[in-house]
Amino acid sequence: MSTGPLAELHDKARAVLDPVHYDYYAGGVGDEVVLGENEAAFRRLALLPRVLRGAPTRDLGVDLPGGHLDLPVLVAPTAFHRLAHPEGELATARAAAAAGTVLVSGVASTVAIGDVVAAARAVRAEASVWFQLYPQPDQDVTACLVERAERAGCTALVVTADSPVFGRHRRDAEHGFHDLPAGLAAENMRDLPGGPPGGVRDIGMSPSVSWRDLDRLRELTSLPLWLKGVLHPRDAVLAVEHGVAGVVVSNHGGRQLDLVPAAVEALPAVVDAVAGRVPVLLDGGVRGGGDVAVALALGAAAVGVGRPVLWGLAADGEAGVSRVLAVLRDEVDHVLALCGGRDLADLTPDLVVSRGTGVSGRCG
Ligand SMILES: Cc1cc2nc3c(=O)[nH]c(=O)nc-3n(C[C@H](O)[C@H](O)[C@H](O)COP(=O)(O)O)c2cc1C
Ligand SMILES: CCCCC(=O)C(=O)O
């Protein structure tokens, strides 16, 4: 059982959420093996701190294609925030902007992207919001979504590649949860080609999605493109060859294929394959500053958090999301100090060892 401020927010969220919506957020695919492994894999890793090389203050900033982060944690795209809180994505956007980080706002947002970006910019004029999308089976719909994101002022696109079909979530099937409650909708899907006038189209998944779709997106927009949901190092290389601005190592929070490795276990091979050509992000199972530090030491430029943000939002709206980001910021800073770091570049791979296997001598 975990304790601490983030676990408390999770407990509060569980208490206030409709159990069906709690299970939608919390659940994973299949037997939820990967869901558990994402967190468990971090527990199997340890940090070997360096001593006597500290600094009075630490710089946690990261520059990425599409925006600067004041802390190496951004908000991963998660669907339907108005299930958690009436202000939904508006509250999340304000909290992310105030913390100086990026919100990756999903196509499956219950607030239209233009309103999400406006909420972030009202808090901080230079706030960056990225737009996540699934390439839609109908290319006109994809093009329309990209245009909406550009018009809204998004500064990057995140293309999710791990969902050629949707994962089968048993908790949702058991509850019969298939539709949003009345009054909530995926607002970015309103008034699209082929959809009902004024109404909302379903978000499509396309089993035939291919690298050609990524190329088409590159032709459609000059925004930096991130490819999310990469686990195989060969795909990371292909992504670089297809001109992505960055790669997100992710197993969708254990919600797609229940056979894959934990995100942090897939990270090192992708980092090796990419070889510094573009930044690599990781999401999945990050639940504290120590996890952030481990992921960065293994080569991630920053990490995304999904469920912790949803728990903060459900527990206390904008203030709850702000608290999640403040806790992570404070914990990363503290761990970095304890590792004798002055900035994030001091988190190097030699600081990460496996728990329970001894420490082999490396003096690089
Ligand atoms: C409720 C929920 C909805 C999600 N919706 C999306 C989505 O619409 N698009 C997407 O690319 N990823 C989505 N994800 C995956 C997250 O972006 C991210 O990969 C994952 O949540 C990270 O794991 P964590 O929750 O352990 O931090 C969703 C995750 C959750 C939990
Ligand atoms: C069509 C909505 C997709 C949401 C999603 O990606 C998830 O629940 O994991």
UniProtKB/TrEMBL annotation:
Q: What is the designated name of this protein?
A: 4-hydroxymandelate oxidase
Which UniProt key words apply to this protein? Flavoprotein, FMN, Oxidoreductase
Top-level taxon in the UniProt lineage: Bacteria
Family, according to the entry, reads as follows: Belongs to the FMN-dependent alpha-hydroxy acid dehydrogenase family.
Binding of FMN, residues: 77-79, 160, 228, 250, 283-287, 306-307
Q: Write out the residues that bind glyoxylate.
A: 24, 132, 134, 252, 255
Naturally occurring in which organism (per UniProt): Saccharothrix carnea
What cellular-component terms does GO give this entry? Answer: cytoplasm
Task: Give the lineage.
Answer: Bacteria, Bacillati, Actinomycetota, Actinomycetes, Pseudonocardiales
- Using the record's annotation, list all stretches that form the FMN hydroxy acid dehydrogenase domain: 1-357
Q: Enumerate the active-site residues.
A: 252 (proton acceptor)
Q: Which cofactor does it need?
A: FMN
Q: Which Pfam families match?
A: FMN_dh (PF01070)
GO molecular function (one) = oxidoreductase activity
Tell me the InterPro entries matching this sequence.
Aldolase_TIM, Alpha-hydoxy_acid_DH_FMN, FMN-dep_DH, FMN_HAD, FMN_hydac_DH_AS
